[in-house]
Amino acid sequence: MMKKRNITFYLFIIPVLMWLIFLIVLPHIDLFLSSFRFENDDGNTVFSFENYLSFFQDSIYWLTFLRTAFYSIAITVLAFVLTFPIAFFLTKVVSKKYSSFMTLLLLIPIWVGELVTIYGWMILLSDHGVINNFLIYLGLMDTPIKMLYTDFSMIIGLLYMSMLFMIVPVMSALDSLDDSLIEAASDLGASKWTIVTKIVIPHAMPGIASGGIMVFMLIIGDYVAPNILGGKSSLWFTEQIYNFFLTTIDWSQGAAFGFLLLLLSSAIIWIVLKITGQKLERVGS
Amino acid sequence: MNKILEIKDLAKYFSDFTAVHSIDFFVEEGGFFSILGPSGCGKTTLLRMISGFEEESKGDIIIRGESMKGIPPEKRPVNIVFQNLALFPMMNVEKNVAFGLKRLKISNDEIDSRVKEMLARVGLEGYEKKKVTELSGGQRQRVAIARSLVLKPSILLLDEPLGALDRKLREHMKIELKLLQKEIGTTFIYITHDQSEALVMSDKVAVMNKGRFEQIDTPQNLYKNPKTSFVAGFVGESNPFEIVSYDNGVMVTTNGWKLEKQGLDYTPKKLFIRPEAFILNPIVDLENLDVVDMKINTILFDGANTKISAKIVESNDVVLISLPQNAQFEDLKEGDIVKVGIHQDDLKCYKE
Ligand SMILES: Nc1ncnc2c1ncn2[C@@H]1O[C@H](COP(=O)(O)OP(=O)(O)OP(=O)(O)O)[C@@H](O)[C@H]1O
Ligand SMILES: [Mg+2]
User: Fold this and answer.
1) Phi/psi at B240 (5° precision)
2) Shortest CB distance from A181 goes to which of B72, B75, B88?
3) Which residue among B15, B34, B35, B44 has the greatest number of ligand 1 atoms within 8 angstroms of its CB, and so is best to mutate?
4) Would you place residue A277 in the very low, low, confident or very high pLDDT band (cuts 50, 70, 90)?
5) Which of A76, A184, A277, B256 has the fewest CB atoms nearer than 10 Å to its CB?
6) CATH no. for residue B314?
7) In terms of CATH, what superfamily is A51-284?
8) How do residues B140-177 score in pLDDT, each as one tens digit?
9) ipTM
10) A165 vs chain B: nearest CA distance in angstroms?
11) Inter-chain residue contact B148 with A188, CB threshold 8 Å
C-alpha cells in the first residue's frame, strides 16, 4: 500500500520537476553564466564582471534604472490609493449579491489583454483622440494637449494594467475583516479616518503588501506599455535590456542587466517590507 | 432615582419584518437592567438602535434628557460590548483599552494612568503587552469590558457577553460582572437569553418576546408573579398545563386533572406550576390546598436541584417536583405513591 502511493507520488512529481528544471532553472542558469561572459580586447571570451560593472560606469544605465524604480514605486502607491476605496466599497458597502458581479466586471481588462487595452488608451489620448476632441468641443481649449507618447500616457497605461493585481488581494484581505471591528471602533469614538488608518489598513496590510509586490514587479518588468505609450524620453530599464538582446545583439550584457533588474527590484521590495515591518511569510498567505 | 435612558414608542421595521414593535421603558441611573428573551426576539436590534448603529423606524431614544435622533454612534454617551467582543487583533491589550481614550483630547500620561487603573479593576495587571489573541476567553471578556468602561460611558450596553464562555467560567463572570457594576456604578443594559444570568445580576429585567416586552419587573416579581404565560414559561422552571374547562372554581386539564382555583374573573387557558410549589406529604387539612396522589417515575438527582418526575394518578399528567435534600424524604424511591399538595395561590393561570 505504502509502496504503491510512493509510485504515484513520483509519477506526479517527475513532470513537475522536469518542468521546473528544463523550462525555468536551466535557462536561467545559462543566462546567469552568460552574463559573466565578456569578450576581451584579444577577442577571447573570458569570465568577467565587466557586464555588471558597465551598469555603474555608464550613468545612462543607472539613471534609467533609478527613473524606472522611482516611477514603479510611485505607480504602485498610486494604484493602492486609487483601488483601496473601490475595494472597500465592493467588500464592505455593497451587498454580497452585487459585489461579486461588479468584481467580475473589473476583470474585463484582463480578458481583453494588455495590448488591446493599450491601443484603447491610444484612441483616447492621442492628439485627435476622444479626450482632446471632447475638450475642444466643449470649448475649454483650442489646440489639443499632447498626452500620448509622454510619461503621462505611460503612467496611465501601467496603472491601468496593474490596478487589478492590487485590488484582488486587497479585497480578499478586507473581506476577512469583521464588520463588528469597524462598529466597535466607531462606538469607541473613532472618526472615519481613524477607523481606516488604525483598523482597516493594518488589517489589510498583508493583502496590500502582496498586491504591492505584484504590481511593483509587473510594472518594473513591463515592456509593452512604456514602449508603446511612452515617448522618446520615457526611458524604461526593460527597453535597454531589449535593446541588448535584439538591437546590439549583446546577450551577455542583456543577461547581466536582466539579473541586475531582478536583484535590485528584490532589494527594493526587501527594504520596503523591512521599513513597514511586514514579514514575507505573512504576505504570502 | 432619575431616568438615565428613556425609550419612547420605539420600533424597527426591516423591509417585510418587524423586529421591534413599539416599546416603551426607562432605565434608572446606576441600575443593572437586563433584557431577557429567546434567540431572534429582537434584543440585538434594540441594543443597536440605542447605540446608534441601527436607525429607529419610529419613536425616540432619550439619554440624560437628550434625544439621540440623528446622533452617530461615536457621539453617543453609550458604549457597547459586542456579542463577539470585537477586540482589535492588531493591537495588544493596552492599546485596545487605550483606543477610545486616544480619540479624546487628553494627555498621554492621563491615558496611561486610566488604562492601568482600568486593567487593575478587571484583574488584568501585567497583561498590558499581551496580544489579545493570546488571552483566554474570560480574559478577552474583561478586555472588552475594560475597553468600554474606561471611557466612563453613561450607559454600558452588553450583548450576550458571556455567550461564548464555558459554563463554569460563565457562572464565575456572572458574579464578577455584578460586583464590577456595583463598584463603579455605571448603568448596565445587559442582553441575554439565559434567564439565570438575568435573574442573578439584574435590578430590573425586561422579558422580550417577538419584538415586544412582556413584563418589566424585579427578578423576584418576575419569578413569583409572571404577568403572561410566556413569562411564566420562560423565566424559571415550570410545569405547563392546558386548561380545557373552568366551572364553579374548578379547572380541568387536557388529561382530566381537576384543580380548584377560586375567584378568577376570566376563563383560564393555560396553567403553570413551579416544581417547588408542590408540597410532598402535606398536612392535609390546610386551607386552599389541593391534594393528589402521585406515583414516582424516577428521581433526577442534581444536588440542591434534585427533582422527582412523578405521574398524577388520576390523570396521567407528568410533573417535575423539587425534592429537598433532607432526611425527611431520604427513603423515597421509584414506584412509591406519595401525597402531594398544591396551594391555590401557586396555580398561575392565564387567559392565553
Ligand atoms: N438587517 C436585517 N434585515 C432583516 N432582518 C433582520 C436584520 N437584522 C435582524 N433581523 C431580524 O430581526 C430579528 C431579531 O434579530 P436580533 O438580532 O435582534 O435577535 P436577537 O434577539 O439578538 O437574537 P440572538 O439571541 O440570536 O442574538 C431576527 O428575526 C432577524 O432575522
Ligand atoms: Mg443578538
Assistant:
1) -90, 145
2) B88
3) B44
4) confident
5) A277
6) 2.40.50.140
7) MetI-like (1.10.3720.10)
8) 999 999 999 999 999 999 999 888 788 888 888 899 89
9) 0.83
10) 25
11) yes
